[in-house]
Amino acid sequence: MQEKIEGLLAAAKEEIAALSSSRELAECKVKYLGKTGLVTALLKQMKDIPPEKRSEFGKSVNALKEQVSALFEEREKAIRKEEMEKSFEREAVDVTLDGKAVKFGNLHPLNIVRNLIIDVFVGMGFEIFEGPEIESDYYCFQALNIPKDHPARDMQDTFYVSDNIVLRTHTSPGQVRVMEKKKPPIKVLSPGRVYRADDDASHSPMFHQIEGLVVDKGITLCDLKGLLDEFVQIIFDKDTKTRLRPSYFPFTEPSVEVDVTCSECHGAGCRLCKGTGWIEILGAGVVNKKVLENCGIDSDVYSGLAFGLGIERTTMIKYGIPDIRTLFENNVKFLRQFGRNDR
Ligand code: DAH
């Protein structure tokens, strides 16, 4: 019997030493010490041992059990350590490697410029009003002193939805809608999409405008000039100057076209400004008395100034973009230049 016990111990020693994973170890432990394991089986043989030798046999088997358990415990510790080291190695992070760049989305240049313009005028106390894009002939033209068959209608290539309904060709109908509802003092900015049947490098059938309107007692062209000077210096740069040129719009009297010093050559003359040093940026004027009266505002008491600028045009001047179509192609390479991805 003693030989059998020693043989089992030797076999266990050899087997345990060769174990290389916790899984193998668990299986082997069952083989020796489990309910039907080899060591347990020895104890079950007790009944075949002569009574006088039973005590000695029992002690030997218990000693064997303890030794085998100790061997397992020792090997288990070693295997755990090995496995932990391996997992540290496997999961190690090299903190000296470059991180992966996180890509940010960015606003479209038209939205950047629109937000900038809105911020400037809101800072001056303007409120925002957004009118409908599908507009009646009355608001788009007639109330603005452009009667049916008036030659001024040819200034804008209109998309007609029906005889009396159009896609608005400008944001100026916003003026009328505001003045009908609100009595002076009025200081409103009206941004939005407008539509014209026109399509080339500097025109798009859909584009964006911002309309400005100030109505109060004693408003003059000087107020317009002061307002626009401050505006262009924030949108372009501090040294930008404005110039008012006489023009004609049915809804303003007098009417002006406003030029700014060229953002590229600062007035010296270049390709962008066609050698003149100036670039036209918007139309404006003193609100025609007829328009005030159409909206129920007493033109002997109140006067107003109005201006309308294209967001595309302003964006193209600000960033030196030669073709309006690049603003609508959604070429990601182009758009990313306006974000911080390439930093
Ligand atoms: N509505 C004009 C256009 O789209 C722009 C404009 C000119 C707006 C003069 C105004 C203004 O408010 O006073 O061409």
Ions, cofactors and other ligands present here are:
3,4-dihydroxyphenylalanine
Kindly give the count of domains.
2
Low-confidence stretches: none
**What's the CATH H-level homologous superfamily of the largest domain?**
Bira Bifunctional Protein, Domain 2
Tell me the overall shape.
rod-shaped
CATH class of the largest domain: Alpha Beta
Helix content: 40-55%
Number of DSSP helical runs: 11
Structural class: alpha+beta
Radius of gyration: 44 Å
* Main sheet: strands, sense, barrel: 7 strands, mixed
Walk me through this protein's architecture:
The chain is of the alpha+beta class. The protein folds into 2 domains: 2-90; 109-335, Bira Bifunctional Protein, Domain 2 (BirA Bifunctional Protein, domain 2, 2-Layer Sandwich), CATH 3.30.930. Helices cover 40% and strands 20% of the residues. It contains 11 helices and 10 strands. A 7-stranded mixed β-sheet has the order 1-5-6-10-9-8-7, with helices on both faces. The protein has a 3-stranded antiparallel β-sheet with strand order 2-4-3. β3 (160-162) and β4 form a beta hairpin. It binds 3,4-dihydroxyphenylalanine. Residues 170, 172, 211, 249, 252, 283-285, 306-308 line the site of 3,4-dihydroxyphenylalanine (DAH). 3,4-dihydroxyphenylalanine binds at residues 170, 172, 211, 249, 252, 283-285, 306-308.
Keywords:
seven-stranded mixed β-sheet; 20% strand; binds 3,4-dihydroxyphenylalanine; 40% helix; three-stranded antiparallel β-sheet; BirA Bifunctional Protein, domain 2; alpha+beta
